[in-house]
Design brief:
The protein is α/β, with parallel strands linked by helices and 155 residues long. The chain has helices spanning 3-13, 28-35, 70-79, 98-109, 147-150, and strands at 19-23, 39-41, 55-61, 81-91, 111-120, 134-143. α1 (3-13) packs across α2 and α3 (70-79) crosses α4 (98-109). The protein is globular, with a radius of gyration of 16 Å.
Amino acid sequence: MSNEMGVRLVHNLTHPSDLIIDLAGGPQLARAIIAAHRRSHLQAACQGGWGREAATLIVSGWPVDNTDSPVEFFGRCRESLVPGGCVAVLLPHGDVVLPVDVVAATKRVGLAYLQHIVAADRPPRRGQHTQLDIHTDVLILTRSTDQAQAGGGDV
């Protein structure tokens, strides 16, 4: 994830008083959280300490390096979110199966697909046909505020 992507996630998906859980590898999100004066459970969250307070945003790389199944991991994310909160899943670009796997697991726990962001290194230029150097795919999932959807499915 680039520094710019970290800033956009923090600024677009949270307010100053919101809590962010950082499960992403690297310092980019931590820098954005600090610069925006947000509250967070930074890298300590990777060691299992997600805290008791519900967060507005959870950011994680994928696949995760823990023993949880995808359904268990996203179930834990859903339980740690406020209603309307988001989970941003950073996917390595180029694997077309990973987004499908993530969405299938999240549907089972009551997280809904919100947005797919594709981050590129350079913007396209008018009149030139060049391929973009895509470096990050980000799936944004949300915890529905609808009680009927909140039950999800079988976990």
